[in-house]
Amino acid sequence: MSTKRKIKLPSPADILRSDTADLLGIFDDGSIDDNDQEIHFDEGDDGESNPYKYHLDENPNYEDPYYYDLGDNINKQVAFYKSNNRSKKQDEEDNEDATEDSDEEEDDSDNEDDDSDDNEGSDSDDLDDSEDDENLDTSEKDDDESEEEEDSEGNEDDNEESEYNETSSSKANSTEGPSKSRSSDTGESSSGQNGAVANNDEYADGDSSDEEEIRNTVGNIPLEWYDEYDHIGYDTMGEKIIKPDRGDSIDAFLKRIEDPDYRRTVVDRLTGQDVKLVDDDLDLIHRLVKGYVPSAQYDLYEPFLDLYSHEVMETPLSGRPEHKRSFLPSKSDRRKVSRMVHALKQAAIHKHKRQKRYNVYDLWKSDNIPVPMRRRLNVDYKAPPARLPTNNSSYNPPPEFLMNAKQLEWIERNKNGHQRKLLLARLPTKYDSLRKVPNHFTYVMDIFNRCLDLYMSSRFAYKRVKGHSKDLLPDLPRPRDLRPYPTKECLLFTGHRSIVRAITIHPLGKIMATGSDDHTIKIWEVSTSRCLHTLSVGDAVHSLAWNPNTRVLVLAAAVGKCVIIINPENYLTDATVVARTNALLESKPDYGDYTASDKVAKTIKWLLPSAEEKEQGYRIVVKHTHKVHQVVWHQQGDYFATLQPDANTTSVVTHQLARWRSQIPFGRASVKVTALSFHPKKAYFYICSQGRIRVYSLVEKKLIRLIKTNSASEFISSIAVHPSGEHFIVGSHGKRVTWYEMECTNRPFTLRYHHGAIRSVAFHNKYPLFASAADDGRVIVTHSMVYSDLIKDPLLVPVKELRNHQLFDGLCVLQIAWHPHDPCLFTAGADSTIRMWQ
């Protein structure tokens, strides 16, 4: 039994297919010795495997029985190794026989020396031994032959050449006999190989009937990979398959002129060779192009033989009588037809419907053919049609179109002969019948001018721009993507009995202060809407503002002609903060050499409250000459400004809380001032008046910006500065909210979504949000994203409309304020309520 062997074929021999190697006999069991389990190609001088070492193609030995007279070099090489391996096997068998004979001779000589007397016995023993050896040799030969027959029978199903070699070797053994085992083996293999060559076996070179159409072995790959190379791929040995010489354009032209079969020759893209089409191929192509059936012998209209009804039966399969509906008209069909007739009478069914047009494509068009270029690069505009004739061109026009005698006389007097003739030819003339109309005098000239215009005059088409109003709107994000922002009412603060005009939130966000026309100031807990403290101030409260410094607890309230500094002690504030505030405000500071000017002394007076007022929380009273409408704090918490609009040049006053000092820094600029504000980061001060906004530098003591609004008489009601300090917004009684940028104040953004006078605007300190409140009862929350890129404009998107306050005497929402940390909005309305939106 043959053992399992491993075949090692170094590169490039590993490209060979296994089925081709089997057909050549490499894996034949009888060609490899059992002791030698591997096949190795010899290495060349350079250390690499060289399958062409023996150069069999240069000096072929045609007498070698294992030589293949074929074109493939690998067949010759495999045959050579097969013969070499088999000769080595026979030499080893002869050496084994020779050693056995020498051992027997030595045994015989020893026996002769020891037993010289028994010659006859020894001779008989030698004869017996020789007979045994002959029997042994014959048995070994039979075993070898039986093994070879089993191996050949085992390979019979996989390889037809092995079967043929087996039959030829059996014939050689029968003729020559078993006397010479080596010559028998040699003849066996040689007869098999010669038989394969003599019969020209079609499978000897590795081809089969399934591969008859294969011309080379590059495989099913895109041939465009090798457009830049001089070959089209590699064969089974790893060698390049060189492209055939196709010639140049001159050769192609000569071939087209001289070759009679040029029209029926195509190029095989796989091999690059010319293939001549036979008549059947041309006929098939012509029929496919014309859309005919590919086979001319196929009859589309062949008589059809009905397999079931061509034989008439004498008796029916069933004796059941026909149903009544088989010979009576259908009532349901009659109703359908009547409905359709009625619909046609009512014009409910349109007979002339435009049929659907389907995009039909060319079924036989190749995808590799490029799209043909357009004949003209310019658009072919149609010429305008000639003007149609009117009543003036009629041969029998109405009398009102005819010329009167006075007009004809004027033509005769003022026009020369040629001009008169042209003019009269174009004037309407009355004829009794069409046959009396003469030839038109200017017909040729009119046609010439028409053709000249068509040829020389340039034509173009006006491109209509289809614009929609929605195309002018910017592409804004969805409001739900811009959250968080307040959307609904969550808390209601009730307790005031009149209009609530002022509202302010402490910087820590725990308490809130509100002022009303009922002469009270209330302190609220934000989280529970609980009133912590109520102060009676004796007059209407117009403005409230907490000190932005959290180290002290100071509330400034504009009440009548006074500004009251209050320390509202409660359980929500820290005791150390309250003690620090009382220590700061309990006594009047030492002025030293400082003396206030006469103008300031007449306008402002710093007073200490009475004992009763001090028990309520009063700490300082700053008295003015006119009603104070607004109080604003500087970001540090030591300075605050007040506005008394009726005081003309002394309407804007600045105060220092720690030193009890006041100043009137502005003169004519403080006339008709309506709103004030400090810059959150720089020492800038904003003053709003009718139609103008002034920005002053408190350090340089000069005007740095003068901004004019769209209307000179516009009343600005409120102003809010962005936390970054680069933008600010103003609200006016003109129902507009205007967004300004400090670096480009001449190009503001105007938002017009309110229907009443705007009372208050406010920015959130943390989130990109601002809100505006108006007398129309609506509070609009707007997303305001400011980018770090100064070139990019801010993103302003109104996201929510809050409406829940009631109108009272034409007023609704008067003041709004944001929570310092959360996206919550507080609104104070004329309905004496405060609402929290979250």
Automatic annotation (TrEMBL):
Domain BOP1 N-terminal as annotated: residue spans: 226-486
Biased composition (Low complexity): 180-191
SUPFAM superfamilies: WD40 repeat-like (SSF50978)
Gene Ontology molecular function, alphabetical: ribonucleoprotein complex binding
One Pfam short name: WD40
Region (Disordered): 28-213
GO biological process terms held by the UniProt record: maturation of 5.8S rRNA from tricistronic rRNA transcript (SSU-rRNA, 5.8S rRNA, LSU-rRNA); maturation of LSU-rRNA from tricistronic rRNA transcript (SSU-rRNA, 5.8S rRNA, LSU-rRNA)
UniProt KW keywords: Nucleus, Repeat, Ribosome biogenesis, rRNA processing, WD repeat
InterPro entries on file: BOP1/Erb1 (IPR028598), BOP1_N_dom (IPR012953), WD40/YVTN_repeat-like_dom_sf (IPR015943), WD40_repeat_CS (IPR019775), WD40_repeat_dom_sf (IPR036322), WD40_rpt (IPR001680)
WD repeats mapped onto the chain: 493-534, 813-838
Domain of life: Eukaryota
GO cellular component, one term: nucleoplasm
Coiled coil: none
Subcellular location(s) per record: Nucleus, Nucleolus; Nucleus, Nucleoplasm
Biased composition (Acidic residues): 92-164, 202-213
PROSITE patterns: WD_REPEATS_1 (PS00678), WD_REPEATS_2 (PS50082), WD_REPEATS_REGION (PS50294)
Family the UniProt entry places it in: Belongs to the WD repeat BOP1/ERB1 family.
HAMAP family: BOP1
Function, in words: Required for maturation of ribosomal RNAs and formation of the large ribosomal subunit.
Name this polypeptide is given: Ribosome biogenesis protein BOP1 homolog
Species in which this protein is naturally found: Hirondellea gigas
